[in-house]
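Can you give me the bound-state structure? Components:
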Amino acid sequence: MTALLSLDGLCQTYVNRPDLAERAANLMGAGYRETRVRAVDGVSLDIAPGEVVGLVGESGCGKSTLGRMVAGVEAPSAGRLAYRGTALEAMTPDQRRAWQLEVQMIFQDPFASLNPRMRIERIVGEAAVVHGLIRARDRRDYVADLMGKVGLAADMMTRYPHQFSGGQRQRVGIARALALKPRLIVCDEAISALDVSIQAQVLNLFEDLRAEFGFAYLFISHDLGAVAHIADRVAVMYLGRVVEIGAADDVFGDPRHPYTRALLAEAPRLDRRAQDFTPVTGEIPSPLDPPPGCTFHPRCPVAAPACREIVPQLQPGPTGRLAACLRETGEVT
Amino acid sequence: MTARADTPLARFAGDFVKSPTAVAAGIGLIVIALAAIFAGTVAPQNPYDLAQITILDGTLPPGSEGFDGFHYLLGSDEQGRDMYSAMIYGLRISLFVSFVAVGFAVMVGLVLGLLAAWRGGWVDGLIMRIVDIQLSFPALLVALLLLAALGKGVDKVILALILVQWAYFARTVRGAALVEIRKDYVTAARSLALPGWRILFGHLLPNVLPPVIVIATVQVANAIAIEASLSFLGVGVPITEPSLGLLIANGFDYLLSGRYWISFYPGVALLVTLVCINVVGDHVRDILNPRLSR
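Here's the bound-state model for the whole set.
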């Protein structure tokens, strides 16, 4: 089966050039330099139709940026992004439109993600009318139908976003994404801002919708429990790179990368067993100036001298799991 | 859920009536506006119609009777125009000029400000540098220079006011739009692949309007003041259609000779109008954005 979406070496580098005043100051020796932030640094990932891929990592590791590129909100600075086998650059206008419509996003903050000055009917139904999926006079019925699918009463569509609770707003956001009949939904921390009881409801809604429509999800979260619950496969990101990827049960049951182990050790769990290694210490390094070699070595409990020099590649280790760690690939023992 | 209508407009109106001062100023403004709009029926005389003016009734004090029995409530000016009527007609010119000018300035400022925020880069740089240059000159000076070049006329005063004021709106809109653009609902609109103009004018525009409404009310008062200043200096509206400023200027020559009413009553009318607009504007600002301060 061909992948719905495939990423190959995808990068997003934010370049901040000195402006005119700073360049003028440089002539007098001020020393402003161009700064480059490698938010996403060579990520390769495939998502099959109907598959749920979890993307976990600390804040600042580039997972949201990756999600925005997948949804077409940002253009990647390098690498290949292909939808249904066609690379971004090679897409015909029709294919590009299909990609933009079929990949939709759900956002973290349910208060900022809905336009406060629009009624729900327009928030949910506008794009479907603009893109010719439905006629303008059918909008009301179309939105009513979507409201039912996400568990909201149809007569709520005449209201404004501020009249809803956080969980209801998130359902509106989901209805908005559903309106374009997507195939892949990027959930960017979609449940992090909700109460725990509401989180479970929304998570169940995601699963119900998946069972009904066969959506694929890119489920971005720092909540390992939620990801373990919903994801088929899990990718762990650290400082713009994927450091481990594999089936969710395997990654959570037998983490191979020391960073994944550290993340799991920090996750609050009821059945916590005795810890046999130190949790992650220190802060995530600045992506402005990433450490040489393996970017995780300054915080790694099992780092060896070679880790400071060799950049580990994502390769299958002894268990067949893809992990970017020199100890896994046998280069460091 | 409550039964009352809960639209943004209803909430705004509910907040507005909480302040008695603002309500009083609002009523005053409505009365002034109605008087200006229906000047033809409210005023006892049409001061622009030379057939109704008697030159023999020039500079009569308030309350006196004219040559043909006409009652001059607030006196008359040198040409025998009834001051009360001339003020109402003058108010009409002043309000018309300022509202039309601010209306166009808002439109120009909105389009350019949104464009600058949305496109960024050199478009932003170019538009904002023009704004900077524009704002670094005093408004009255720019208007004076423009009118010196263009000549007199209501249309030319309006044009000068638009050119003086659009920059305030462009800068305000850009600032507000830059904040809004970072919010997720704009990202969502992009993810829905909506056309850029639709995001700009359908999604962003309603969210940048509150600060624009506030600035606009203040700028209407400013425009009236600038128009009055220009007319007072003799480069504004033509003498045949006197605005409040021109009436004040006409009476200025008589001030020291004791005929105070020719300047005094138009001055009071100007003052009351400006105070009403500013009080309403301040209150609108407090409702729409409590943290914004001038």
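A couple of observations. Residues 167 and 201 of chain A are 9 Å apart (CA to CA). The interface with chain B takes residues 68, 71-73, 97, 100-101, 103-105, 107-109, 112-118, 126-127, 130-131, 159-160, 163, 173, 176, 180 of chain A (CB under 8 Å).
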